Amino acid sequence: MLQAKVFVTRRLPIELEPLRSLATVEVWPERQPPPYEILLEKVKEIDGLLCLLTDQIDRQLIDSGKLKVISQMAVGYDNIDITAATTRQIPVGNTPGVLTDATADFAWALLMAAARRVVEADRFTRAGLWQTWEPDLLLGPNVTGATLGIVGFGRIGQAIARRAKGFEMQILYTSRQRCSPELEQSLGVEFATLEHLLQKSDFVTLHTPSVDDTYHLISDRQFELMKRSAILINTARGNIVDPDSLYRALASCQIAAAIDVTEPEPIPSDSLLLTLDNLIIAPHIGSASRQTRSKMATMAIANLIAGLRGDRLANCVNPEVYN
Ligand code: DGY
């Protein structure tokens, strides 16, 4: 029986019994994340950390402890200094795969809601403004048959494309690596440069990780390339889009957008973005189906247990630690 200690930075939607039988488990009980200073203290006395994307796991924190494993309950891990963890031979786990469909579904929910102005329609109705059927009330573009541009073509980008086929869309994608001709054919997608994709697409949806190369990938110049009627969807990471450029593009009514992620998160209450009707903002809930969140938590616990036991994590973002 291990005498390990672990800290879980938020209550999880599953039972922690398998973990409790192996380790002393402390769960942060608040709705807000533990403050950085508390994490810094905790990390000195624990072997395993289960964290979320709201926890800043930087070099100072990693170097302050004697962690055997860091397990992130998310597929993205841009909140963790992976280089620092790798230097200390600490495996970092994540939860890929299980949230692909939920996130793709939600990106589609945002796309449909923005195109057909569902949120504005709800506000309009509740405000008592629905007086009659009007030929030009709350018009939006067609989704069926439109051109969809997918930026980033990993698991989630491809799941978006599979759904787009049902809407008979022309599908363009851009990514660092072009797919095989077989995959392109089976998904009915065409490779494009980012510039070409932005110029041609009626809908642009972002599915890249947050890395140095994708920081503010969509800024003034990219908005200028887009059709004036384009709709931008972001369910990836907030910092892929420059928020000032987004505001300028939306305020000039150049485009519409629906985003599940912002820079920073949560969006500041005085952000000018909150004043715009042609923007839908959700609070980072792309993966928030009950089944998906439960699978993510189960996977994060499995990674944590493997790390405590000294076994290889099933999903490890820095496998170099095993060399
Ligand atoms: C992730 O997993 O990275 C998502 O952003 C949260 O579900």
TrEMBL record:
UniProt KW ATP-binding keyword: no
Cited SUPFAM superfamilies: Formate/glycerate dehydrogenase catalytic domain-like, NAD(P)-binding Rossmann-fold domains
Family annotation (Pfam families): 2-Hacid_dh, 2-Hacid_dh_C
All copies of domain D-isomer specific 2-hydroxyacid dehydrogenase catalytic, residue ranges: 8-318
Keyword Transmembrane: no
Alphabetical UniProt keywords: Oxidoreductase
Domain D-isomer specific 2-hydroxyacid dehydrogenase NAD-binding: 109-286
InterPro entries: D-isomer_2-hydroxyacid_DH, D-isomer_2_OHA_DH_cat_dom, D-isomer_DH_CS, D-isomer_DH_CS1, D-isomer_DH_NAD-bd, NAD(P)-bd_dom_sf
Protein family: Belongs to the D-isomer specific 2-hydroxyacid dehydrogenase family.
UniProt protein name: D-glycerate dehydrogenase
